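# step 3/5: fold
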Amino acid sequence: MAEITAGMVKELREATGLGMMECKKALVEANGDFKVAEEQLRIKSGAKASKASSRVTAEGVVSTFISPDAKTGAVVEVNCETDFVAKNEDFIAFAKQVAETVSQNNPADIAALSDMKIANGNESVEETRKALVMKLGENISVRRFERYETSTGRLSSYLHGSKIGVLLSFTGGDDALGRDICMHIAASKPKSVDASGVNQEEIATERRIAIEKAKESGKPDAMLEKIAEGTVQKFLKEVTLLGQVFVKAEDGKQTIEQLLKSKGATVSSFRMFVVGEGIEKKVEDYAAEVAATIAAAQG
């Protein structure tokens, strides 16, 4: 039987990113053949990733990438199971690589992205993901992405920690303005740039509620539509980027629309991701679990 040295284990660990005991075991089983051991670890890595794929990934990070010329960029959400792994350097680096891959290659969807060679790496996004699952022991998934490309304007981005990310496409102004707008979006969470992007059902709901409230308060029928329209316009100012008051407005009144006009700038589009948004998280009732265990033991 071939001698398995510490140097061999270290080399395999560096090549695969896996634990020392797993690497040593693989080398023993492969009788010291490095390539065979590496291949077997990759096979096991894929198996472990597949087994983990059913577990809920509601934690994670948002990452962004913008090309040096600020003409193409992407924002991505990459999920894991725990906040502990979300803070892992390798996990964060993977998310950054995915964002750069999206920006450079313009994949049609997650499936297409998975098959692409990851930026600054030698394997595909999917192969890199599986290796990371094996290394960190948690399910990891690329949940969603958005890519922007502009020929006339520029892109800007902002990350609030690692949980909220914004990608912005705008024309005019400068980088400082772009960052300010991105920060405002992260803080105020507008639904769209202007009223045209707001769901019509939401507007209808606001109108209907306003009319019913006016009726209950005894307002005459002739005033109902005017009251409803005023309510809708107030709602649109609150949920549209252009209508919102800029979070850094010195007078507390300047809207984003007024700010942009003063800078000779316009916003084409934006996208904001919040980690875990819309994912149903499993709530553990540990007290009930302990009580059930005690009851079973006493029964």
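# step 4/5: annotate
The CA atoms of residues 108 and 249 lie 39 Å apart.
# step 5/5: archive (pending)
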